[in-house]
């Protein structure tokens, strides 16, 4: 009887062991094949989150949101069969995941509609179609051209981005003929004959075009001091709050929406509430921006708007290594207008009538100042004007 009981217990133990092993194997197999916690991945839409959200299309590096189900265990996202896409799995959920549209020329990225393949941790895949859109070309803000000035027959290198599918290169609207696209960030062309003034360079791609002034050697050039939007002389356009300042009695500001065409601009106002007999605004000193020395062929160009301040007499000052040179300009007309002031007409020592000390030397100018004439309190109250797009126009002979 005792032996029979022992044999029965051994049989039950063996059966239990088999059942536990079977259940364990079944459980492992089930975990490996159930597609994770939320099941097989499915894609409903891929929505780009740029300035103009679109479904199943977007620009390089634009953030997109993938919507669907079973997305929490995603392992890999591949564009066009070649381009792996980085994404942060910690941000995934069962119904959504995020990534930035990849674009890597070295990996074979291209524009247009292509297949995006999603693979989860269990090897299950789902695919969707997505269009990578080509951005418009851009040009670098500084050091766009090398050499920095055009000269007939000389090769010019141009630096920017998105030089894909380049259709043409133009100077003043005319094709230069042959050009070479070195990379998406660089192209080469030969500057044409017959140009005597600053020209407009344009690169045209299948996605759009971009233009920029290109000065020339031995001709009239424009030098942008500032447009109050980051363009111009770098060391006075990096931080307006630090680089631009006012002095005397005035209210001065740089703000979006007050410049020409609703852009960022500056405004100076005098209301006779202070005690100083002068009013002005200026910027930190700059290095020489030209080799020209002839004030007869050099001009200060500035866009101004004095609406709301009739009778204002504006003053503009050029500071060089000798003195401050001043010219007065009574406000005339309404709305935005462009002043073109010859540097030879500026007077020595803040005195527009002092023309007996030669002329300002354009190559030694270190600052441009905007002032309001109130002659110790005798000006129109209030006086003021907005200004934008401060430039030099200069005849350079080198």
Name the descriptors:
398 residues, six-stranded antiparallel sheet, 41% strand
Q: Average the pLDDT over all residues and give the rounded result.
A: 88
* Total count of strands: 28
Global morphology = elongated
Provide the structure class. mainly beta
Number of helices: 2
Please state roughly what percent of the residues sit in beta strands, choosing from under 5%, 5-15%, 15-25%, 25-35%, 35-45% or over 45%. 35-45%
**Largest β-sheet summary:** 6 strands, antiparallel
Instruction: From the alpha carbons, calculate the radius of gyration and give it in angstroms.
Output: 34 Å
Order of helices and strands: HEEEEEEEEEEEEEEEEEEHEEEEEEEEEE
What is the rounded distance between the termini? 120 Å
**Share of helix, binned:** under 10%
Description:
A hairpin with a 4-residue loop joins strand 24 (313-319) and strand 25. This protein is mainly beta. The longest helix is centred in the N-terminal third of the chain and has 32 residues, at 2-33. The radius of gyration is 34 Å and the shape is elongated. The strands form 6 sheets. Strands 18, 20, 21, 23, 26 and 28 form a 6-stranded antiparallel sheet that branches. A 5-stranded mixed sheet has the order 2-8-7-4-5, with no helix packed on it. The chain is built from 2 helices and 28 strands.
């Amino acid at each position: 009887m005792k032996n029979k009981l022992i044999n029965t217990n051994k049989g039950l133990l063996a059966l239990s062991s088999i059942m536990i092993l079977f259940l364990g194997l079944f459980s492992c197999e089930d975990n490996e094949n159930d597609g994770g916690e939320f099941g097989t991945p499915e894609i409903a839409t891929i929505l780009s989150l740029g300035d103009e959200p679109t479904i199943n299309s977007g620009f390089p590096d634009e953030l997109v949101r993938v919507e669907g189900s079973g997305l929490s265990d995603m392992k890999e996202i591949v564009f066009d069969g070649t381009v792996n896409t980085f994404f942060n799995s910690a941000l995934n959920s069962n119904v959504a995941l995020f990534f930035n549209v990849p674009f890597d020329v070295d990996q074979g990225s291209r524009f247009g509609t292509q297949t995006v393949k999603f693979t989860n941790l269990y090897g299950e895949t789902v695919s969707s179609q997505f269009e990578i859109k080509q951005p418009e070309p851009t040009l670098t803000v500084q050091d766009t051209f090398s050499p920095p000035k055009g000269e007939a027959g000389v090769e010019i290198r141009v630096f920017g981005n998105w030089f894909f599918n380049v259709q043409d290169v133009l100077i003043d609207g005319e094709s230069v003929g042959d050009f070479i696209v070195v990379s998406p960030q660089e192209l080469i062309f030969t500057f044409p004959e017959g140009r005597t003034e600053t020209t407009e360079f344009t690169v045209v791609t299948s996605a759009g075009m971009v233009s920029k002034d290109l000065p020339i050697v031995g001709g009239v050039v424009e030098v942008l001091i500032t447009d109050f939007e980051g363009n111009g002389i770098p060391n006075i356009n990096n931080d307006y709050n630090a680089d631009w300042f006012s002095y005397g009695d005035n209210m001065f500001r740089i703000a979006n929406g007050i410049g020409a065409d609703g852009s960022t601009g500056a405004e100076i106002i005098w209301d006779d509430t202070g005690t100083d007999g002068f009013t002005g605004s200026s910027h930190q000193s700059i290095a020489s921006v030209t080799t020209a020395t002839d004030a007869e062929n050099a001009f200060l160009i500035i866009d101004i708007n004095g609406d709301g301040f009739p009778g204002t007499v504006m003053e503009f000052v050029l500071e060089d290594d000798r003195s401050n040179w001043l010219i007065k300009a009574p406000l005339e007309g309404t709305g935005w207008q462009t002043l073109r002031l010859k540097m030879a007409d500026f007077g020595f020592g803040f005195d527009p009538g002092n023309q007996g000390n030669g002329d300002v030397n354009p190559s030694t100018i270190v600052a441009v100042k905007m002032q309001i004439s109130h002659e110790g309190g005798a000006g129109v109250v209030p006086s003021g004007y907005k200004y934008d797009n401060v430039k030099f126009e200069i005849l350079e002979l080198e």
